[in-house]
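Hey, quick one: can you model this chain's 3D structure?
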Amino acid sequence: NQSGYDAENSGKSESSEIPDEITWTVDSTETILTISGKGSMDEYWGTKTAPWYKYRESITKLVISEEVTSLGSCAFHGFYKLEEIYFNAVQIKEMGSSVFPQAGYESDGIILTIGENVTKIPNGMFENNDANLLEVVFEEGSVCKSIGASAFAHCESLSDITIPEGIEAIGNYAFFECYNLLIQFESVNFP
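Sure thing. Here's the predicted structure for all 191 residues.
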């Protein structure tokens, strides 16, 4: 069920639909993967790999669009060259475990940008992923209210995050064992 792909024409991209209306596209340079559509993503354990897995060696930027409601376990396993993640999933309800295992290890690290309309960073977003996450950036005007439990637990390479003014809650162990992390606050607003 693929569309928009012509192996002999590098000017086109590959895309496909995943059940539950999730879609994905890879740009013509095979460096940007966009996950969009409405719904939940499958789990990718064991021998079941994500349909975009064959691009793991070239993808440097991942875009997760607004209506995606979940990210499946091991969905981005081995995306070693990943440098940027733009997380704009305002409808996100859950994260599988180890969504980004070993991501970013052949790059200078990953910068995670949280879209301005995202209200919650999900529980366990990067927990136990062994990913090379360096920095978390909130877009200007962020309306984010909470950072979920264990969201960045065990991200030993995480070095910088500025908590925006609107954050009202940070879940237990959100930054557990982030030994190199410098946390800055725009202002303190906890009840």
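One thing worth noting: The first strand starts at residue 2 and ends at 3.
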